[in-house]
Amino acid sequence: MDVEKAFHMTGGVGKTSYAKNSSLQKKASDKVKHIIIQTVEDLYLTTTPKSIGIADLGCSSGPNTLSIIKDIFQAIQGISHKIMHHSTEFRVYFNDLPTNDFNSIFKALPEFHQLLRQDRKNGFPSIFMGGYPGSFYGRLFPNSYLHFVHSSYSLHWLSRVPPAIYDEHKRSLNKGCVYICESSPEVVSQAYYQQFQEDFSLFLGSRSEELVVGGRMVLIFLGRRGPEHVDRGNSFFWEILSRSFAILVLQGEIEQEKLDSYDVHFYAPSREEIEEEVRKEGSLKLERLEMFEMDKNEQGSGESYGTQISVAVRAIQESMISHHFGERILDGLFKNYARLVDQEVAKEEIRPISFVLVLRKI
Q1: How many Cβ atoms from other residues are within 10 Å of residue 172's Cβ?
Q2: pLDDT digit string (tens) for 17-32?
Q3: Could you please report the per-residue DSSP string of 321-332?
Q4: Residues 164-191: pLDDT tens digits?
Q5: What are the C-alpha distances in Å from 3 to residues 32, 58, 134, 195, 332?
Q6: Cβ distance 178 to 241 under 8 Å?
Q7: In Å, what is the CA distance from 134 to each residue of 32, 162, 236, 278, 318?
Q8: Which of 337, 32, 4 lies closest to 138 in space, CA to CA?
Q9: From the record, what ranges are coiled-coil (predicted)?
């Protein structure tokens, strides 16, 4: 399966869309928003550019996309006013895979411009926004073009399912599991780790070329606590998805062979794996690396935890699952998923963790 052609968050504003089901990502990003603002302010004070280039990589669509840009804009406006140095222009680039719902972003821009202009009667800097479709695992922009790069909940998605998890007949070695699980052979976890190394290294090297000296990046993505790939964190949610598929196999909704050939292009790295790739790349200084988690009581919704997780995962995985199995299984699959998550949480907490990184071009 060609990830670049098939993978995208569910577009539009319908019931199962990412726009309607990305509140968990928003709450998590808000938890580290102070780090983003502090980094942006420090960047501006040390570089004071007249034209500032900002890229949001893996921007998706929906309210989260423009919310962070507003926060960055207001932070820069506030600090520039304090030091009496006014930027003449902002350049904002929204990047995601070509199948992303960019139209939803573009439709929201006139209202967004109006929102930014509020309370800015005494001069308003020029702000130029555009879409940049393409994979961020490779070059997107010219050399020394960007001052700030933001990426939220995108870098745990690999450029592809690791080819080394398939045998010479292109059959998956990871039967019955959609990600690394207890029964996965060692070659499977090694293949996923090597794909992460290849992708993250390419990401860092590409951004290093595109950032000005002193430019910053804030990256937020899912990870794991220690060396073990299987834990009761992010990998456990994939375990529950595998179980949800297995129920459909028992019900005759899908073939076992079809399930065995479905694997996700995901990887949850450890702190040490992240640090090692940054060290090997060499031109970016890791200024901050923090782990954080969302307590299920912080979700703030009347729905069960299982339902909240289920609609969020569906909005992300729907495109890939539909491509492989067809759309007809989606409702039953995620009904099973929500029920199983609630059953597991009643037994013991599930504690997925995220990392936030701050990097500086040296």
Answers
A1: 18
A2: 565 555 667 777 889 9
A3: HHHHH-GGGHHH
A4: 999 999 999 999 999 999 999 999 999 9
A5: 29, 14, 12, 14, 24
A6: yes
A7: 27, 20, 30, 23, 20
A8: 4
A9: none
Report how far residue 152's alpha carbon sits from residue 12's, in angstroms, rounded to the nearest whole number.
20
Token duo for residue 138: 């490779």
Residues in the chain, overall count:
362
Which CATH number goes with the domain that contains 203? 3.40.50.150
The structure tokens listed for 279 are 């060290």
Domains identified in the chain, total number: 1
With a CB cutoff of 8 Å and minimum separation 6, the contacts of 298 are 27
User: What tokens does 55 get?
Assistant: 């890229």
- Which residue carries 């130029």 as its tokens? 128
Which CA distances in Å does 118 have to 33, 65, 79, 112? 22, 19, 18, 10
Backbone angles phi, psi at 176, to 5 degrees: 85, -5
- 256, 175 Cβ separation under 8 angstroms: no
| Contacts with 147 (C-beta within 8 Å, 6 or more apart), sequence order | 43, 47, 49, 52, 53, 54, 211, 212, 215, 216
The predicted structure's pLDDT at residue 113: 86
What span, in angstroms and rounded, lies between the C-alpha atoms of 50 and 305? 46
With CA atoms as reference, report the closest residue to 156 among 64, 238, 39: 238
Residue 261 has pLDDT above 70, yes or no: yes
Domain with 271, as residue range(s), is 3-361
Going by the DSSP 8-state scheme, the letter that residue 97 receives in this structure is -
The DSSP line for 173-233 is: SSTT-SSS-TT--HHHHHHHHHHHHHHHHHHHHHHHHHEEEEEEEEEEEEE-SSS-S-SSS
Residue type, 356: V
Give CB contacts under 8 A, 24+ apart, made by 231-234: 232/348, 232/349, 232/350, 232/351, 233/268, 233/350, 233/351, 233/352, 233/353, 234/156, 234/268, 234/352, 234/353
Report how far residue 347's alpha carbon sits from residue 362's, in angstroms, rounded to the nearest whole number: 48
Question: Are the C-beta atoms of residues 153 and 58 closer than 8 Å to each other?
Answer: yes
Residues 6+ apart with CB under 8 A from 282: none
Helix 23-31 with 63-82: angle, nearest 10 deg? 20
